[in-house]
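User: quick one, sequence for these tokens?
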């Protein structure tokens, strides 16, 4: 049933030759959809709107470009054309025209990236998923992966690092299209063990990318025992931060250091009024509390002096 194809070392030139051959009508064959596996679709993010457009195109014009498949045992592995496969399934079609890619199984992933490189169909995160798979599943070194794509090792390292820093739950939500890649990048700044709770809050509160960035920064700045309060009511903590960020962008270069220092003090003092801080005050000795009260009094005096200086400058 299957034609025999000899394998050869994968190179950029080889991929280009494969891409050019796939456009020739005499180099394709019809393959039953029941024989096509789409395991590599795990590296692609969902795009329902795009699939809807392809459904309309197939209905109007038929299949204009063949998909690309590789041979794996007694079945075909889809390398390029996932949206065309989904659209054909929705239309209850039985066959797809396809070009056959010759190469070892791990080269299917490399071909997937090369065939989409020219049209920029793969995003950074999708590339990261492929590179991470080549590194962890196929046991290629980062240097070997870099050579396959004609890139520097640091490019490979950065992509792989993005996936390694994310928890499985976050990666799963991104793959399902429930969380944007931008929010995923922000979550990657947190330790993996803390990402799931933050992710739940982001989804439940429907936070924007900007709010997500501020939430992550807040969690990184504040001690761990405050995180529960922040995650339980993120809008309460983010509202002043978002407001101050907007105001800060309109300040002059001279005013920003004052503004940022005073904001940092204000946020710190507000956090010290949380329940856990209050209970700590209660557990202190009277002498400890008197000492803290003395410092607070000095702080009030300093703030009053700062306020007066600002008023005086205003009236000059």
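Assistant:
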């Amino acid at each position: 049933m299957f034609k025999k194809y000899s394998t050869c070392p994968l190179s950029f030139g080889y991929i280009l030759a494969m891409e050019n051959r796939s456009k020739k009508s005499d180099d394709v064959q019809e393959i039953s959809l029941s024989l096509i596996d789409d395991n590599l679709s795990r590296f692609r993010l969902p795009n329902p709107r795009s699939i809807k457009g392809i459904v309309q195109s197939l209905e109007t014009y038929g299949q204009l470009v063949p998909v690309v498949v590789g041979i794996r045992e007694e079945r075909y592995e889809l390398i390029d054309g996932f949206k065309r496969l989904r659209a054909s399934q929705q239309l209850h079609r039985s066959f797809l025209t396809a070009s056959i890619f010759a190469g070892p199984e791990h080269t299917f992933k490399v071909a997937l990236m090369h065939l989409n490189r020219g049209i920029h169909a793969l995003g950074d995160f999708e590339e990261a998923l492929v590179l991470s798979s080549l590194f962890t599943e196929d046991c290629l070194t980062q240097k070997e992966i870099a050579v396959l794509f004609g890139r520097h090792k640091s490019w490979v390292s950065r992509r792989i690092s993005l996936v390694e820093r994310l928890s499985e739950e976050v990666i799963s939500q991104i793959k399902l299209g429930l969380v944007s890649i931008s929010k995923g990048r922000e979550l990657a700044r947190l330790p993996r063990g803390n990402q799931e709770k933050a992710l739940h809050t982001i989804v439940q509160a429907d936070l924007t990318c900007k709010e997500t960035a501020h939430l992550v920064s807040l969690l990184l700045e504040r001690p761990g025992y405050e995180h529960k309060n922040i995650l339980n009511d993120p809008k309460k903590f983010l509202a002043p931060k978002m407001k101050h960020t907007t105001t800060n962008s309109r300040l002059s270069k001279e005013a920003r250091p004052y503004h940022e220092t005073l904001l940092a003090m204000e946020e710190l003092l507000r956090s010290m009024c949380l329940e856990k801080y209050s209970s700590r005050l209660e557990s202190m000795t009277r002498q400890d509390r008197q000492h803290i009260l003395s410092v607070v009094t000095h702080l009030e005096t300093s703030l009053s002096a700062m306020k007066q200086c600002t008023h005086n400058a205003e009236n000059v």
